[in-house]
TrEMBL record:
PANTHER family: GLUTAMYL-TRNA REDUCTASE. Its EC number is 1.2.1.70. The active site is at residue 52. Substrate binds at residues 51-54, 104, 109-111, 115. Homodimer. It catalyses: (S)-4-amino-5-oxopentanoate + tRNA(Glu) + NADP(+) = L-glutamyl-tRNA(Glu) + NADPH + H(+). Residues 10-151 form the Glutamyl-tRNA reductase N-terminal domain. Possesses an unusual extended V-shaped dimeric structure with each monomer consisting of three distinct domains arranged along a curved 'spinal' alpha-helix. The N-terminal catalytic domain specifically recognizes the glutamate moiety of the substrate. The second domain is the NADPH-binding domain, and the third C-terminal domain is responsible for dimerization. It comes from Halorubrum glutamatedens. Residues 310-410 form the Tetrapyrrole biosynthesis glutamyl-tRNA reductase dimerisation domain. This is Glutamyl-tRNA reductase. Pathway: Porphyrin-containing compound metabolism; protoporphyrin-IX biosynthesis; 5-aminolevulinate from L-glutamyl-tRNA(Glu): step 1/2.
Length: 451
């Protein structure tokens, strides 16, 4: 019998990694990443999630060393400091934090939970979701839902990008309008995502590195296009809204870019400025800078940070619950193996004893029941102490003891060789004539240990 599977994870995400590093991690798609991981030695289950701000993968293996080895090639070109590696408990907690929005660029944002559901379905389609990851990912999604229904973690405007869009919507009608997002970094990405939820008909993403702009454009469902920064003078005059968020040390837009503009709202959330301040003197141009947005975002951030503490309490509660369930299941696997092996020996020896007693004059039905009950009692009493020890071992994360028990009490160890015609009926053939069935734990033992 194999050791119970455990999760090993790896994460390359914003904060520690650059956009280029996130993009280079894993495969080109969730399904491709999962398929690749499933082909590796020892991997039984696999799950991956990819957004513009994170690339993560999780595998289930019998031994944690196999999990670490399987994930070695996930981010080979990424700096070690930008790669976060997770053990079983760390993976469970991290998945809950991601689904709750605690690991997002915008604290508590809602988009990530939908992205995780999509990743779950893609991973399932690739054959990667088994019992361990089924429990882990569905639990994370459940926690994400609780965070948003039981707290106000997702309420209000918290990012400069979303605040810019809200400010613009108060100035002009964005319906069927064109919005230009200048910059493909964190703030530019958030602005594009927020615009995707408005009535604009087109989003243009401009960036010095066009592939990075394309990566942001792929994140939105609204019709989108990408241009180089040098092409801005051609697109800005046709825009209704321009949001700038580059890391350029010098302005990327000056008044000449707006000469032919009719009515445009320009919001500069870069620091240092992306837009020459003199642009605001042009008629038809409403220019706002970061100072106009910071106050509203600060107040919302403070509220969300308070709510985040409530979300962390939910995570602690749910993590403790799933870990208890996992530990109990791991212990029960070993205990079931132990009882299964004992039941086979009991059944064999009981059959021999009853055959001898029958040859010596036979037994009444009551006598036969007494002998069988004694055999059941012996097994139960002999295994009560190791059963309790295995439960204690699970509670103390002593997986070495559980692994040893699985090896010692492997129910296949002394099983008779399979003969033609018997395949598919091994469970029926190995049931003891009385007491617990193959692989089950007697109710009496469970009741005693639960007291």
């Amino acid at each position: 019998m194999k050791e119970p599977g455990a999760i090993t994870g790896v994460s390359v995400a914003h904060g520690a990694a650059t956009i280029d590093e996130i993009e280079s991690a894993g495969g080109e798609s969730v399904r491709g990443t999962v398929s690749d991981l499933l082909a590796r030695d020892g991997v039984e289950e696999a799950f991956a999630v990819r957004t513009c701000n994170r690339a993560e993968a999780y595998v289930v293996t019998d031994r944690t060393t196999e999990g670490r080895e399987a994930l070695e090639s996930f981010a080979p070109s990424v700096r070690g400091a930008a790669v976060r590696r997770l053990d079983h408990e760390g993976s469970l907690e991290h998945l809950m934090r991601v689904a709750s929005g605690l690991e997002s660029l915008v604290l508590g944002e809602d988009q990530i939970i939908g992205q995780m559901r999509e990743a779950y379905e893609e991973s399932r389609s690739a054959g990667g979701i088994g019992p361990v990851l089924e429990d882990a990912v569905t639990k994370a999604l459940h926690v994400g839902e609780r965070a948003r229904t039981e707290t106000a973690i997702n309420e209000g405007v918290v990012s400069l990008g979303s605040a810019a869009v809200r400010l613009a919507a108060g100035e002009i009608d964005l319906t069927d309008g064109t919005a230009v997002v200048v910059g493909a970094g964190e703030m530019g990405t958030l602005a594009a995502r927020t615009l995707d939820d408005t009535a604009v008909s087109e989003i243009v993403v401009a960036n010095r590195t066009v592939p990075n702009a394309a990566f942001v454009a792929e994140e939105v469902d609204t019709e989108s296009s990408v241009v180089h920064l040098s092409d801005l003078p051609a697109v800005v005059p046709e825009a209704d809204l321009v949001i700038t968020a580059t890391g350029s040390p010098e302005p990327v837009l000056d008044p000449t870019a707006f000469t032919d503009a009719d009515r445009v709202v320009c919001i500069d959330i870069a620091q240092p400025r992306d837009v020459d301040p003199e642009t605001g003197d042009l008629s038809g141009v409403s220019l706002y800078d970061i100072d106009a947005l910071e106050d509203v975002t600060r107040r919302t951030r403070e509220r969300r940070e308070t709510e985040a503490r409530e979300v962390e309490s939910i995570i602690d509660e749910e993590l403790d619950r799933i870990l208890r369930s996992y530990k109990r299941k791991r212990a029960d696997d070993a205990i079931s193996a132990m009882y299964a092996g004992a039941d086979r020996v009991k059944a064999r020896e009981l059959d021999r004893a009853l055959t001898k007693l029958d040859a010596q004059g036979g037994l009444t039905d009551e006598q036969r029941e007494t002998v069988e009950a004694m055999a059941d009692a012996l097994v139960g009493q002999l295994l009560a102490a190791p059963t309790r020890s295995l439960r204690d071992a699970a509670g103390e994360d002593d997986w070495e003891t559980i692994r040893t028990a699985l090896e010692l009490f492997d129910p296949e160890f002394d099983a008779p060789p399979e003969t033609p015609g018997e395949r598919g009926s091994a469970d029926d053939a190995s049931k003891a004539p009385s007491g617990a069935p193959f692989g089950a734990i007697p109710d009496s033992a469970t009741e005693e240990l639960d007291d």
